[in-house]
Amino acid sequence: MSTAPRKFKKILIANRGEIACRIIWTCKEMGIRTVAVHSDVDRDSLHVRFADEAACIGPAPSAQSYLNIPAIISTAEIFNVDAIHPGYGFLAESSYFAEICAACNIKFIGPPAPIIRLMGDKVKARRAMAEAGLTVLPGSPDPVTSEEEGLKLAREIGFPVIVKAAGGGGGRGMRIVQAPEELGKALEAASNEAAAAFKDGSVYIERYVQNPRHIEIQVLADEYGDCIHLGERECSIQRRHQKLLEEAPSPVLSPELRNEMGDAAVAACKKLGYASAGTVEFLLDEDNKFYFMEMNTRIQVEHPVTEMVTLADIVRNQIRIAEGERLGYTQDDLLIVGHAIECRINAENPETFAPSPGLITAFNLPGGPGVRVDTYVYAGYRVPPFYDSMIAKVIVHARTRDLAIARMKRALEAMVIEGIKTTIPLHLKIMDDPRFKAGDISTNFMEHFLTQNGSKIAKNRNGAVALAG
Ligand code: MV4
Fold it and tell me: Do the beta carbons of residue 313 and residue 307 sit within 8 Å?
């Protein structure tokens, strides 16, 4: 075990958008120099201006820029950086990229490559987490290779079951199966979708939980086996597996259940030798039973709600841990104060969710007590059509959930983004929704909400979305 901590003088941020800015802000506070990389069309993004140095790594398509490992590694070499922060998306969960960084003597700011690889395979992750003590739903310990095998398993588990892709996550290659006669088709469809999306057609089966809540535990672990959790985030409000808003703490967790979920996540991470920030995702059923779903080995979009209620800087902790420092706090140091909500502001039509890139002609950010905005755009900026549509996150913090909702409303009302369409009006409606206000939310919330609000979007039987009418 090395005793002299690594100290980073310069970090390359292998990402774009608000998360690249977010990482640079913390680096500045830590006195660490930053190198931004950007595509041709991202020259005018704020992450390029905020960084001490910047390099263009390729044309607009991310396969040739933000996923271009040779371009990123050679930039890191030329600018002589000590470490690379991958942000989320792009190369953040590429065990291959993490290995390349190590081979080039550049510290990858994230967990060890073997753990990234393990968690990327949802079948292996499920098995490893079950062995590490987490409860998983009844299901297959290995990928299902035939309809007969699947049927036998599904009958043991009991219907409904869900077919999931081993390479998956994000809902692709997923099918809910209500009855035995549907299983064959579902296995084939899920496998084909998975093969196309992840180059791996392996699928597995689990008992299906109706109306679950998506609750995830933020963990921090150092390289010496210490691990703590920072409480949970409630992420049930999503549409087609894209989260729209998140909050911390969850309006439904008792302190006892929070401790139980947190302690279970921490114990499992310790057993696996996890290091860095990470998120253990759980499904919470209507009887308050929780089941391991997936582990994310990266910083997440919704990390700010945890930062607000704990006063932790998760990026700072990722960097300190990667430097080889000890965590330095114990679980008893964790304090959760008040309530935080994050609304993702996307450049999208708020009724159809169609992308709405283009020139921002007017822009005003909300401020005042308890308001944080993470963004990379400004008045006069042209949102490019090549990347995901999230252009800002509005995060509020207040004493109680009711006060946080009132604060979010006034922040969104003060926010001006003209020239493109955004999801601000949708969030304003959610803030007024009686079920949302009551904390009565599950993963089905948005479907009900959009139907009730006369959305032009209707969901067809396959879960695909079509314009009604
Ligand atoms: C489930 C489930 C119910 N039962 N697994 C969706 C994406 C992927 N991460 C796993 N997902 C689900 N897995 C079992 N056994 C319901 C979902 C699910 C979901 C989970 C979290 C947030 C939103 C969701 C929306 C639909 C389905």
Answer: yes
